[in-house]
Amino acid sequence: MGTISRGFTGRRSSTDAKLPSGQYLTTDFPVLSAGPTPHIPLDRWEFVIDDGTNVLRKWDWKSFRDLPTDTITVDIHCVTRWSKLGTYWEGVSLDTLLADVKTDASYAMARSYGDYTTNLPLKDLRNNQAWIAFRFDGEDLAAEHGGPARLLVPHLYFWKSAKWVRGITLMHHDKPGFWESLGYHIYGNPWKEQRYSDDV
Amino acid sequence: MWRVGTVVALHDETATARTITLKVPDWPNHVGGQHVDVRLTASDGYSTVRSYSIASAPGPQGRIELTIERLPNGEVSPYLAQELAVGDRLELRGPIGGWFVWRSEQTEPIQLIAGGSGIVPLMAMIRSRASAASTAPFRLLYSVREPRAIFYRDELQAQSDRGHSVSITYAYTRATPKDWPRPPSRIDAALIANTTWPSNLVPTCYVGGPTSFVESATDLLIAFGNGRDKVRTERFGSIGERK
Questions:
Q1: Rounded CA gap, A146 and A161, in Å?
Q2: Above 0.90 for ipTM, yes or no?
Q3: Which of A100, A146, A159, A171 could lock onto A107 through a cystine, CB 3.0 to 4.6 A?
Q4: A138 touches chain B (CB under 8 A)
């Protein structure tokens, strides 16, 4: 136990048990972004999977929206310590998007409009764990929350769920993205509290 | 790693905000704009953590200042803003963050835009500029509800008087000082055009405040011709407090 804070009692609730260590519950949906919110017209939106040299797959909004979709109800955990339970999304599974991609890459860099990047092991994008989400709570995803579409990888801290996603670059070696270059953890598992680069 | 800081001074900034000065052994120096995690632990072991911007410039003394606005229904901020006393100890982790920062090597014009308590990390940049004897041209546009809600008023005035080194514009949203030329209103295109650096000087812009404030200020800056890659943001939203 750490240093006791004299006179501090705090609040506890039954939901705390469902939260990773160091998180607290919020019922609203805070916004955290490093810069301005991009506004991307749907007729200019595209999503590209590449290997750093060649384009492997590419969708425009219409062909993307013609893909089969999933509805997803998940808990999300932000490294700034809020968690939100039972969030409801609609999106296209990365399993669908990666289905015809032949690769021996082990890592991926998600790339966004506005030049944000975040890195993940490719296996974390497969097996029904990751989506390109375009609807939240039954509504089109608002620009400030990453619309038209964002990555949704709820088993990692939420900075990995890149807003305004525009593509994924497959990589043989792991490489830090935006926040990962600025002191945040290379992987970001909330259940191990991998917040900052010196967390194990 | 967590460090234990000792409260050495407390100072009320406004009726709802106060500055806590902590002495932290082995504090690794920070840069203006970074934050710390603060961990409170109850006597039964329950603990919770919040992030707060550092208000002070880096210095050799191992001291840092945090300015905490008391949020209604907050779990942590009322404790820090009211209960905490000189001599109490607080657990801290940091400094954290490498993006929303101003470094003394930067010589380009700097535009700071603050909404309410969003001033705190920007004040750390202004103080860092002074302590580094930087001559980088700074402008601050500071939006507050009313005159008595201004943090660091005398110090900002002194900074602004010192050879016009930091030029400061206040914008009031609810009540203004007597005979103030601009009626109470949110920041708008005219205010951005009249008080911020012309975009052809390519200023780096730092915008801190509640989410809706930051969204509108950044949209105005971009409409005024500033590059998206020149605008850095720190959104407080309702983060940091349990609803």
A1: 9
A2: no
A3: A171
A4: no
Cis bond upstream, residue B184 (ω within 30) = no
Q: What is the mean pLDDT of residues A99-110?
A: 96
pLDDT in the model for residue A1: 54
Indicate the CATH number for domain B110-235.
Answer: 3.40.50.80
B216–A contact, CB cutoff 8 A: no
- What stretch of H or E contains B217? helix B211-223
**Does residue B7 sit at the A interface (CB-CB below 8 Å)?**
no
Q: DSSP characters for B226-237? A: --GGGEEEEE-T
Mutate to test the interface with A, among B239, B241, B243 (most CBs of A within 10 A): B239
Task: Tell me the two tokens of residue A57.
Answer: 């797959």
Cβ-defined contact of B215 to A34 (cutoff 8 Å)? no
B160 DSSP 8-state letter = H
Residue pairs between chains A and B whose CB atoms are closer than 8 Å: 115
Tokens of A141: 């995803």
Assigned token pair, B129: 């500029």
Fold identical between B3-96 and B110-235? no
Asked whether the predicted pLDDT for residue A134 surpasses 60, the reply is yes
A97-115 b/e (C-beta count within 10 Å ≥ 16 → b): bbeeeeeeeebbbbbbbbe
**In chain B, domain spans:** 3-96, 110-235
A-chain residues near B43 (CB < 8 A): 4
Chain A residues inside the 8 Å CB shell of B228: 35-36, 38, 114
CB contact under 8 A, B40 and A5: yes
**Residue B124, CB half-sphere, CA atoms under 13 Å: how many?**
32
Q: What is the pLDDT of residues B4-53, one digit of tens each?
A: 999 999 999 999 999 999 999 999 989 999 999 999 999 998 988 989 99
Question: CB contact, 8 Å: B79 with chain A?
Answer: yes
Residue to mutate among B3, B47, B82, B214, with most A CBs inside 10 A, is B47
Q: Which of B75, B89, B90 sits opposite A11 (nearest CB)?
A: B75
Per DSSP, the three-state class of A135 is: strand
CB B83 within 8 A of CB B70: no
Output the CATH code of domain B3-96.
2.40.30.10
Side chain identity at residue A200, one-letter code: V
